[in-house]
Specification:
By secondary structure, the chain is mainly beta. It has 1 helix and 29 strands.
Length: 309
């Protein structure tokens, strides 16, 4: 009887040990490695540009993965306007440009560095840019699945779309946003997760949040300058929560295209302040939404009922 009990205990312990090992194997590391860019202009997929320390020698055998933090810092670039070319989809955890823009002792400022190419950067953590960077000519997909991530964009021009795509993601903006891409697809895509705009100013050619994935949008006291004449604002679908708080949404001001005509569409939500600027013509299809403060200096047409509080 004693032997039988001992044998059963060993079997249970062995089973638990196997379970622990399986869980450890299945759980990705929260942060795997730090990648530092060195050597000035180059291609993201060129391993000679990735070092294990700031200003160090290249030592990696693969490009950054989704758990790796990427740093562009004071030792990454030797001159202004140098570029990193991205020709496909690349990935990382944090993407951090802190310290990349600098003024060497006795020298001229080093600034204007850019990500260029036709590619997309998948960021699984935070995105931090630096004031003085040049226009970033790539797309950014925000894919974090947990934790609160930071977006510190410093009003650096982004000539691509910025997309939030993870239902488990939670992002907070810490500085102004300047999305300069213009096209049929809005440049700011809030497709899943929780996004907090806090107190920042957002300039873009359109905002879209549609579909059936869980979305929570907190506008805080932010100001949105909506510049695109097509699909300037589009919020609809299920599992959508909007807290407009003390925000202001502005339609108009230097829109591209031959006509200054704007489209504002929404499911039934509550907005704080909405403004149609002088020279702009806005069409609202807002499905019984509430607008607490509506200011029209141009013209406004409503194609569905709305409550102006």
């Amino acid at each position: 009887m004693l032997f039988t009990n001992f044998y059963a205990l060993c079997q249970r312990l062995r089973a638990r040990a196997r379970l622990v090992l399986l869980l450890l194997a299945a759980s990705p590391a929260a942060h795997a490695a730090d990648y530092y860019w060195v050597g000035g202009s180059g291609r993201w997929d060129d391993l000679s540009h990735w070092a294990t320390s700031s200003g160090g020698s290249a030592a990696y055998t693969q490009v950054p993965q989704n758990t790796d933090d990427v740093h562009f810092d004071a030792n990454s670039f030797s001159a202004s306007n140098q570029t990193v070319t991205i020709g496909a989809t690349v990935t990382c955890h944090d993407l951090d440009w802190t310290g990349a823009v600098r003024t060497p002792a006795g020298g001229a400022v080093v600034n204007g560095m850019r990500l260029v190419g036709s590619g997309t950067v998948e960021v699984n953590g935070s995105l931090r840019l630096a004031a003085g960077l040049g226009q970033q000519d790539v797309n950014f997909r925000m894919l974090a699945t947990s934790g609160v991530q930071e977006l510190d964009l410093q009003a650096v021009p982004l000539n691509g779309w910025l997309s939030f795509e993870s239902e488990g993601g939670n992002w907070t903006f810490g500085s102004d946003v300047n999305l300069v891409q213009y096209g049929a697809t809005p440049s700011l895509l809030l497709l899943a997760g929780s996004v907090d705009f806090s107190t920042v100013t957002v300039s873009c050619y359109g905002v879209r949040s549609t579909g059936s994935r869980s979305r929570a949008i907190y506008l805080g006291s932010s100001v949105f300058n909506l510049l695109g004449p097509n699909n300037a604002w589009e919020l609809s679908g299920t599992k959508l929560y909007l807290d407009a708080d003390a925000s202001t949404l502005r339609l108009g001001n230097a829109a591209r295209g031959s006509a200054n005509a704007f489209s504002f569409s929404s499911s039934e939500l509550t907005y704080n302040a909405v403004e149609v600027l002088a020279g702009a013509s806005a069409t609202f299809g807002v499905a019984n939404s509430v607008v607490k403060m509506l200011t029209v200096k141009g013209t406004a047409t409503f194609t569905s009922p709305a409550t102006i509080a």
